[in-house]
Specification:
Blueprint (H helix, E strand, L loop, with lengths): L7 E6 L5 H10 L6 E3 L2 E6 L1 H10 L7 E8 L3 H10 L11 E9 L6 H20 L4 E2 L6 E8 L2 E7 L21 H11 L6 E5 L5 H10 L21 H14 L7 E6 L2 H14 L5 E5 L12 E5 L7 H21 L3 E7 L2 H5 L7 E7 L2 E9 L10
Parallel strand pairs: 5-6, 5-7, 9-10, 9-12, 10-11, 12-13
Antiparallel strand pairs: 1-3, 1-4, 2-3, 4-8, 7-8, 13-15, 14-15
Bound molecules: S-adenosylmethionine (SAM).
């Protein structure tokens, strides 16, 4: 049996706040959730399942395939267990290996020591059995082994992704404070636009929210554009299965939308960047880009969702100016967005209060280490006022 068809635990790490989104995604992909922590979700699956997840998963950071899990009070136990794993079945002797780790154990001052020693144990075993050893180094462009050792519990994994899954490959240029693609995907999941009416994204910056919305609504997997994943470098990588997974995904993807996606920003250079990002993602034909102040844009009839991710500034002068912006967002919602559901993603609660409307929901999310809220506002049409 190929190592690609053996089942094990698949652990998908993610940012804080994301596990409920990730769990919902995994269930929708047909994987019952086995465990959920503050920053990961675990399921059962094979390396082929891991390939499928690398292609389809929008909110997870990586896909880890578990090789061993043990009680590990001391380093000796870790290295002797490592030496018994049949690495030669997973790592080609002419391949490239890097080791990463998360270590929280009193015997370890510098986790680089664990990485180095783990690498030595692996390559020594492969050299003994195969007559040559893989190259190794810090770059995650080949096989990646991950050691997670916390207190007395240790897990040894193949990181089947390598580079973070947030790096879809479409965004080569930033903009001001771009959202991580995985966080943008969680926002898109939460706003639950059904593809009719309009997905309106004033303040689009580098276009991440609009691009992720287009990919999701058209059922285009986020990993379709990416050229390299760590699983491709494992022994026995079933290339034809990978190509078939991509073919199936392309066949299932929708070509057009009943609704519209509109992305605007007042910064012309940023909009140019967003267009280039959308082109790389293959969705530029579906997103209507425009330049202008958010309050001046023509809001189409027919409702939908309007999603804003304004800056939330750290310096004092900035904050004063931003108060005005948040106040104007409230006015914009009331005056121009009746019939829409409004959303604001912000990391500053005081600024959020300046919107002057009562949020119907406040969903906690993290942008890096900054605790944010995705605030939802129901904006009724006609004489009905915003729900309070
Ligand atoms: C935090 S960034 C948005 C980042 C975006 N979500 C991304 O992933 O790249 C805020 C954006 O709002 C834009 N912006 C600020 N004030 C604006 C205004 N009055 N009208 C339109 N855009 C504005 C900025 O140019 C900036 O690109």
């Amino acid at each position: 049996m190929s190592v690609f068809s053996q089942p094990s635990t698949l652990l998908i790490p993610c940012a804080k706040g994301i596990p409920p989104f990730l769990a919902a995604e995994l269930k929708a992909l047909g994987f019952p959730v086995v465990a959920e922590t503050v920053a990961s979700v675990s399921i059962r699956g094979t390396l082929v399942d891991a390939m499928r997840l690398n292609l389809h998963c929008r909110t997870g950071q990586r896909v880890f395939f578990q090789l061993a899990s043990m009680n590990c009070p001391a380093q000796d136990g870790l290295f002797s267990r490592l030496a018994r794993i049949p690495w030669e079945n997973y790592i080609p002797a002419d391949g490239y290996l890097s080791v990463t780790s998360v270590v929280d154990h009193p015997s370890v001052r510098d986790r680089r020591f664990i990485n180095q020693k783990t690498k030595d144990v692996i390559v020594d075993r492969i050299r003994r059995l195969r007559g040559r050893r893989p190259d190794s180094g810090p770059r995650r462009h080949g096989v990646v082994v991950h050691v997670y050792w916390r207190r007395n519990q240790c897990g040894i994994y193949l990181d089947t992704s390598g580079e973070s899954l947030a790096r879809r490959g479409y965004r080569q240029e930033g903009g001001k404070a771009p959202l991580q693609e995985t966080l943008a995907a969680a926002v898109v999941q939460e706003v639950a636009w059904n593809g009719t009416g309009t997905f309106l994204n004033p303040m689009c910056g580098s276009g991440t929210l609009a691009i992720e919305a287009a990919l999701k609504i058209l059922d285009i997997p986020p990993g379709l554009q990416r050229r390299n994943f760590a699983f491709m470098h494992l022994e026995g990588f079933p290339r034809s299965t990978w190509q078939q997974l991509k073919r199936e995904a392309r066949r299932q993807a929708r070509q057009s939308l009943p609704g519209r996606i509109i992305a605007t920003d007042h910064d012309r250079a940023v909009v140019k960047m967003a267009k280039q990002n959308a082109r790389r993602a293959g969705v530029d034909g579906l997103i209507e880009f425009g330049v202008g102040d958010f309050a001046q844009i023509a809001v189409p009839e027919g409702g939908g969702v309007v999603v804003l991710n304004p800056e939330y500034g750290e310096r004092l002068g900035q904050l004063a100016a931003l108060e005005g912006t948040y106040r104007r967002i409230g006015d914009f919602f009331k005056q121009k967005c009746a019939g829409f559901r409004g959303f604001i993603l912000t990391g500053n609660r005081d600024l959020a209060k300046k919107v002057g409307l009562k949020a119907s929901r406040r969903i906690p999310l993290y942008n890096g280490s900054i605790e944010c809220r995705l605030l939802e506002y129901e904006l009724y049409a006609g004489s009905q006022r915003q729900k309070v």
